[in-house]
Design brief:
heterodimer; A: ABC transporter involved in vitamin B12 uptake, BtuC; B: alpha/beta; six-stranded mixed sheet; 10 helices
Chain lengths: 354, 262
């Protein structure tokens, strides 16, 4: 009833290719952004900020990175956590080895290092596809984890291989409270999500989807495989790298290479499967789901105080994830994002059936 | 047939092409010429090497012997995307649309070659990236009008019936403004009306844009009606080359189609 577009006419191609073509969507997203930038930092508790919102945003960014590679360009990867690790360790080294290094520049350079490593491990994608490529990226996962554990230079020769975040500040403002950390993360994630959406609707996004859907036809209409696939690896790894650096410094503070193990890669893959493969919104929905599910289960545990053991809850979480992934792969391969889209279609005609 | 349409010089020559996959000879010693603005049909029984010939012309396959001369330049091991850059577009026997994308996005992908904005400009959707997107959209809309598919612009291609998918594939090829268009069985599996529509579009493309067309088709009525010239292949060999009237009475061709001694 409220979500209806009648009377909204588009009179230019620019208006027709806008991100949000329906006025109600524009109002909704503007309100959401205003809420998250202005109201949330002032009102939310520290637990809500550091325990839920910051991890949600950072994991959304990593999922966004994997979605560019797997969802848009169709290249299956199990190495997302490795690229996050490269971003984290590279940013750390830029920060401690170059005095006066601005935080944002260090994050950018860290992402760039992850992009280079991503391109190197993306080279096999020119020859192999699907499962075989997934195994090749698995090699990246184990190799990079090993490198950061084995060579202590990367962790500045700390005995335990742990890196600790140096004091962070942006233009003189210290980033030390949960609210300031949240705002920094939110600003970066919002900007990068917009950039991802823009790429997805422009020629590079179409080239990625063309390679994903029918590679021979893509090449025949003039798309260069090498460039397109490697650019997908580079940009995807850049996103993962920035997410990794934020994960290490903003969320945890101290981190070692084991924080970016295969389990993390799978977690990010599950996010895009549940959230929606090939959808920007899906990356956020999937991350929200995976961050919130354990918290909800914990609350459930508290309600049934003592009746359910924590061990059972941990196992229940695994079982739920497993079940949901099978459910989504069979019933709705495009995940929560598709369900949301269907809901919106229904809402357009509600309360009438057609 | 439009009497004002002028057939020009030879723009593509395939010279003594031989192609084999392991022990199977797909093409042996085939030479053919394509003239500017003409409609050339390649016909022959199944497995005669027709699709292989198209694949050689646009660089998907590289022949073991022989070479292709296009606009006076001899090509060595060319990749398909380079052929696209030189103005050769094609459609496929089995529809090769991008299933996850809308009709509009599929056709826009055909314009990718015309876009110069780098990925940073695209990520910011600013300056050249935005201007290009709108300018190319305007051209794509012309193609959409031309092929009469306005009503399905935003539909995902996977939901379309077969005949329309074929038309969208033609639209995507046309979006690249090719000077030579290779059509691999554009009318396979269509009913009579759809075939008539497709014939009309092919003739219109040839007439309005002056596009040279190389066509593989099994419907002899269509082939005889719209072709300027026909090349007949059988078992990877060329057995006929000439106008529809010449091919109709060529004894080798009749033997290949109706049976006879080889």
């Amino acid at each position: 009833m409220f979500y209806r577009e009648s009377g909204q006419f588009k009179s230019s191609y620019a208006a027709d290719s806008a991100i949000f073509t329906i006025a109600q969507d524009r109002v909704f997203i503007a309100a959401l952004l205003a809420l998250s930038f202005v109201a949330v930092p002032g009102l939310a508790s520290d637990y809500l900020l550091s325990g839920i919102l910051i991890p949600f945003l950072i994991l959304s960014l990593a999922a966004l990175g994997l979605n560019i590679l797997t969802g848009y360009a169709g290249q299956l990867s199990l190495g997302s956590a490795a690229f996050m690790a490269v971003g984290a360790f590279a940013t750390y080294n830029f920060m401690i080895r170059i005095p006066g290094m601005p935080l944002l520049l260090a994050l950018f350079l860290g992402g760039l290092c992850a992009a280079l490593v991503g391109v190197a491990f993306g080279l096999p994608s020119l020859r192999i596809k699907g499962f075989y490529l997934a195994v090749a990226t698995l090699a990246a996962q184990f190799f990079i984890e090993w490198v950061f554990t084995k060579f202590s230079w990367f962790s500045n020769d700390s005995s335990s291989g742990v890196i600790s975040a140096p004091a962070m500040q942006i233009f003189g403002y210290p980033i030390d409270t949960p609210a300031s950390k949240y705002l920094l993360t939110l600003a970066i994630v919002a900007f990068m999500a917009l950039a991802a959406k823009n790429m997805a609707r422009a020629s590079i996004g179409r080239a990625w989807m063309a390679v994903r859907d029918m590679d021979v036809a893509a090449e025949v209409i003039g798309i260069r495989m090498l460039r397109t696939k490697l650019l997908a690896f580079a940009i995807s790894s850049f996103y993962c790298g920035v997410a990794g650096a934020l994960y290490a410094f903003v969320l945890l503070g101290t981190v070692d290479a084991q924080a970016f193990d295969l389990h993390r890669s799978f977690q990010i893959l599950f996010m895009i499967i549940i959230g929606g493969v090939g959808s920007i919104l899906g990356s956020f929905l999937g991350a929200a789901f995976i961050v919130l599910l354990p918290i909800c289960l914990n609350l459930l545990g508290q309600v049934f105080h003592g009746a359910i053991s924590t061990q059972f809850l941990a196992n229940l979480e695994m079982m739920l994830f497993g079940g949901l992934i099978i459910f989504f792969l069979i019933v709705e391969p495009h995940g929560l994002a598709r369900l949301w889209q269907i809901a919106k279609e229904k809402l357009r005609v509600w309360p009438f059936p057609h | 047939m439009n009497p004002h349409r002028k057939i020009g010089d030879v723009i593509l020559q395939a010279e003594a092409i031989s192609l084999s996959f392991g022990g199977v000879k797909a093409l042996s010693n085939i030479s053919l010429e394509v003239r500017e603005h003409e409609i050339l049909s390649i016909i022959g029984p199944n497995g005669a090497g027709k699709s292989s010939m198209l694949n050689v012309i646009n660089g998907v396959y590289h022949p073991q012997q022989g070479h292709v001369v296009y606009r006076g330049k001899t090509r060595e091991r060319m990749r398909p995307h380079e052929a696209a850059r030189q103005g050769i577009a094609r459609t496929f026997q089995n529809i090769a649309l991008f299933k996850g994308m809308s009709v509009l996005d599929n056709i826009m992908t055909g314009r990718n070659l015309k876009m110069r904005a780098n990925f940073i400009q695209q990520a910011l959707y600013w300056g050249r990236a935005q201007r290009e997107e709108i300018a190319q959209r305007a051209y794509v809309e012309k193609i959409i009008d031309f092929l009469e598919i306005q009503h399905i612009r935003k539909t995902p291609v996977g939901r379309l019936p077969y005949g329309l998918q074929k038309r969208v594939e033609l639209a995507r090829a046309l979006a690249a403004e090719p000077s030579m268009l290779l059509l691999d069985e554009p009318m396979a599996g269509m009913n009579v009306e759809e075939k008539q529509d497709m014939c009309r579009f092919i003739l219109d493309v040839n007439d309005e844009f002056g596009t040279t067309i190389v066509l593989i088709e099994h419907d002899m009525g269509v082939v005889m009606d719209i072709s300027d010239r026909i090349v007949v292949l059988d078992y990877g060999k060329k057995i006929g080359d000439g106008s529809p009237d010449e091919i109709r009475v060529n004894p080798d061709v009749i033997a290949a189609y109706l049976g006879g001694s080889h």
